[in-house]
């Protein structure tokens, strides 16, 4: 029923357009007489198929209407499908191999740089001495440019710098802290590639790990740690992890820790 109504509406539209539109003569070409409403309606009834109804609503002359060709996209036989599946599996395994190679190269590079770091810049573990409680860290969170050495390491080699801080404060060994940092970073990167929601959860979990050890630094150095300080620690590691790592490193380098 709807199809018939559409055809009749198209026929009426075509009849009006065909009646009101003047035919201009082109020099050197035979003039084609306009189609009468009866001929137009018969043509539309013959060609009234869903694939051309939209074209009829746009075009007035059915002689310009052409059915869209049917094109088969992709394989059509079982052999072609099997070939395509094997090809895609090969690409997938190639991608896995590339990722594994990049992972191994990255780990080897970080371990090599960490070994050089331990020989050139590693801080010794601080002697244990009790200190009076203080209200804040020795240096501001955004004053890292005052120590370009720490600022450069926190920006360009934060895994090594953070591991050195944990080692100097006696919270973790250098290599243990480095592996923890790499595991958290890789888990967060993988989760972000897999699913945005999972990536957000992994990012928050990573922030929680680093905030936990920042809280331990507050305890070690007798730094005030109320609710607002905890909120600041979370916000700093969420928004500027490099500044947080540099501030913690400068605290360890210049402050002796208290004996618990």
TrEMBL record:
Keywords, alphabetical: Membrane, Signal, Transmembrane, Transmembrane helix
One Pfam family matching this protein: PLAC8
Signal peptide: 1-18
Name of this protein: Transmembrane protein
Upper classification of the organism: Eukaryota, Sar, Alveolata, Dinophyceae, Suessiales
InterPro entries for this protein: PLAC_motif_containing (IPR006461)
Membrane-spanning residues: 92-117, 168-191, 197-213
Superkingdom of source: Eukaryota
């Amino acid at each position: 029923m709807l199809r018939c109504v559409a055809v009749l509406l198209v026929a009426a539209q075509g009849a009006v357009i065909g009646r009101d539109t003047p035919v201009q003569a082109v020099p050197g070409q035979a003039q084609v007489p306009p189609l009468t409403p009866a001929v137009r309606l018969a043509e539309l009834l013959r060609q009234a198929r869903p694939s051309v109804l939209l074209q009829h609503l746009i075009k007035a002359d059915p002689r310009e209407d052409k059915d869209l060709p049917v094109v088969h996209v992709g394989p059509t036989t079982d052999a072609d499908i099997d070939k395509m599946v094997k090809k895609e599996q090969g690409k997938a395994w190639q991608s896995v191999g590339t990722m594994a190679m990049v992972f191994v190269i990255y780990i080897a590079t970080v371990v090599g740089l960490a070994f050089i770091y331990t020989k050139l810049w590693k801080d010794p573990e601080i002697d244990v001495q009790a200190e009076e409680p203080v209200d804040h860290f020795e240096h501001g969170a955004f004053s890292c440019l005052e120590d370009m050495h720490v600022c450069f390491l926190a920006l360009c080699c934060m895994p090594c710098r953070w591991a050195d801080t944990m080692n100097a404060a006696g919270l973790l060994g250098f290599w243990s802290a480095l592996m923890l940092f790499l595991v958290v970073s890789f888990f967060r990167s993988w989760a972000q590639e897999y699913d945005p929601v999972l990536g957000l959860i992994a990012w928050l979990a990573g922030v929680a790990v680093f905030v936990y050890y920042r809280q331990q630094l507050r305890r070690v150095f007798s730094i005030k740690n109320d609710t607002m300080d905890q909120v600041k620690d979370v916000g700093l590691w969420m928004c500027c992890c490099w500044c947080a790592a540099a501030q913690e490193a400068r605290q360890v380098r210049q402050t002796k820790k208290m004996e618990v």
